[in-house]
Amino acid sequence: MPELPEVETIVKALRQGGRGGDAILGKRVESSYLAWERTLAYPGYEVFKEHINNKVVDEVNRRGKYILIRLGNEYLAIHLRMTGDLRVETRIDENGETPLRQHDRFVLYFDDGLRFVFNDPRKFGRIWLVDDLRLILDNLGPEPLDPSFTPHALYESLQNHGKRNIKALLLDQKVIAGIGNIYTDEALFAAGIHPLRLAGQIDPIESEILYHSIQSVLLEGIRRNGASFDWVYRGGKFEFQVYQREGQTCKKCGATIQKISVGQRGTHYCPMCQPILR
DNA sequence: CACGTCACCTGCGTGC
DNA sequence: TGCACGCAGGTGACGT
Question: Is the pTM of this model over 0.85?
Fold first, then answer.
């Protein structure tokens, strides 16, 4: 789930408060707790503990779907994968220590009594503590909302991977960072491009439309604080045009939204607005 | 190298 | 009601 807009929403909340929790900027780490070993991808927990204690949160940023928390000269990098979520909450209340919840995998305790909790039912999420972010971010493609990502850059990528279908290409984090299954389907719908079209047969005009569609769905996602999955991403208001709307009416043309499988991912599209041939 | 498939996990909805 | 099955917002390892 969490794709660029959801991660951006979470990062903003960590910076300035929101989503029911306080900001973590300026807070000092007192201790930590690791409930599921594999959640910590690097380094081993013994080393991790020594490095993180007493560090202060200086910055919180995002790159692709990664949350990057700078603690002095080191970075805590978090990837939520499918079901990860973060909470900032009080450790102790009038009843004593607030119990951790089911699926809480990792906790940072701050010296002001707040705690930072990583919850993840499916255990796919990962956390790293590194001094060089290149270790994690080296293979990421451009940020789709960064000025360095241009229509020309997108068209070049389509040409460079001409034999892949456009859906698989947009999901590839080496090509563009931050887009996942929801926003891919939404961007292709907005652009009127069928998910199975080969990247190489998308012409420059369509490519430019796709470029603006990608930016527009991501910006709308951010503006709405993420997607409408109350289940995990509390409060998101982004409304789907095609995602999870199989069998329902296309909001543009009234045709019936279809669902197919593309590269093992559920893929939603409008057969009228997104013809396979052109 | 580039691309496709599978494994990693748990929970939920569906259909029998 | 119970249960087996398929599916889920992601990606890295492995095979062709």
Answer: yes
